[in-house]
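Last lecture ended with a question: if I hand you only a sequence, what can you say about the shape of the protein? Today we answer it with a concrete record. The protein is DUF3887 domain-containing protein. Below, first the input exactly as provided, then the predicted structure, then a couple of comments.
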Amino acid sequence: MDAFLASRVLTKDDDWADAIGRAVSMQAAADDVVRAVVQQARRNGATWQVIGDALGVSRQAAFQRYGKPIDPRTGEPMNTTPLPGAAELAASVIGDLASGQWTRVTEQFDPAMRDGLSEEALAAAWAQIIGLSGAFEGRGEPEVTRAGDVTITNTPLSFEAGDYTARISFRDDRAIAGLHILEGQTP
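The predicted structure:
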């Protein structure tokens, strides 16, 4: 089967851009087939656990990728498309935290965050993490999902003596609706 699929995209000439384009088209078509099978499985009563097991992911990951949540406030399907550029926003916020740019971070807070977390409290929280785990060393790639009215980013953080996850939630206007530094790295 792999040889058959490869024969559809590999060429004898050096037009690799065209071959890659055909491979990406096949990948998109395969994703469409998986989505259709998952939807049919759900219509026929398959649980998210069964689907997740078949996909090799958790039931929550399967739901987040293929589910169609209904907003309990309206009865309408929820927007599940993450905010464009959320990974870059999260990286910028983490960069500002690491460089002590507390004002730049708090200026991005939505009103509820501004009321709940001052610049001084943010600086003190970051200092507490440094006190527990040493200097900030770097970050990994953010994982981005949409939940309800916010886009949630989970970014692995590395310190000298500990690992954390920065969970930052963004509203559609790009304001920060939540900022948590969690001990350990989320899967």
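Comments.
1. Strands lie at 136-139, 143-147, 150-159, 162-170, 176-183.
2. The mean pLDDT is 90.
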